[in-house]
């Protein structure tokens, strides 16, 4: 079957489509006529041919539609909503969340700068704290060495 199709396509490429289709029918090499399918059982109701495209929003989707400002209350939200409306609401919430995170980051940076300036006024810099810690360690080491030397002389 693929051989026949490739010949048909090759024929159209070479400009011989009309001659090839006259030789072979559009059904290929099949001689048997296709019979129509039997009608479906009358017990099942026929499915509608056209269905309104939409999406049944979940509770979270309803909250997003309200937060995005599309609707004022949950009662105003229809039973089915278009995909574009849900997507637009999600994008608007995503942008608002990004703005909130940016504002929180800038606020945290300003708080850190303010706290650093207050610590500098109290002379609590990292350098001063480091020097104090190392001086304390040197004192402890000197005390340990003196205690070890005294215990070594006593023996």
Automatic annotation (TrEMBL):
Topology within the bilayer: Single-pass membrane protein
Localization, UniProt: Membrane
TM spans (from-to): 97-116
Alphabetical UniProt keywords: Membrane, Transmembrane, Transmembrane helix
Pfam family for this entry, one: DUF1075
Listed name of the protein: Family with sequence similarity 162 member A
Keyword Transmembrane found: yes
GO biological process terms held by the UniProt record: cellular response to hypoxia; neuron apoptotic process; positive regulation of release of cytochrome c from mitochondria
InterPro entries, sorted: DUF1075 (IPR009432)
Family of the protein in this entry: Belongs to the UPF0389 family.
Entry superkingdom: Eukaryota
GO CC terms in record: membrane; mitochondrion
Keyword Cell membrane: no
């Amino acid at each position: 079957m693929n051989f026949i199709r490739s010949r048909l396509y090759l024929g159209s490429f070479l400009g011989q489509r009309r001659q090839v289709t006259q030789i072979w029918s559009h059904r290929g090499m099949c001689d048997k006529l296709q019979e129509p399918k039997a009608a479906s059982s009358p017990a099942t109701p026929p499915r509608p041919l056209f269905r309104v495209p939409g999406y049944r929003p979940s509770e979270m989707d309803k909250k997003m539609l309200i937060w995005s400002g599309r609707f004022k209350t949950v009662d105003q939200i229809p039973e089915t909503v278009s995909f574009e409306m849900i997507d637009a609401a999600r994008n608007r919430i995503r942008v608002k969340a990004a703005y909130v995170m940016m504002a929180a980051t800038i606020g945290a940076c300003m708080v850190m700068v303010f706290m650093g300036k207050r610590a500098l006024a109290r002379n609590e810099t990292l350098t001063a704290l480091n020097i104090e810690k190392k001086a304390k360690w040197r004192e402890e080491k000197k005390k340990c060495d003196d205690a070890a030397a005294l215990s070594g002389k006593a023996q």
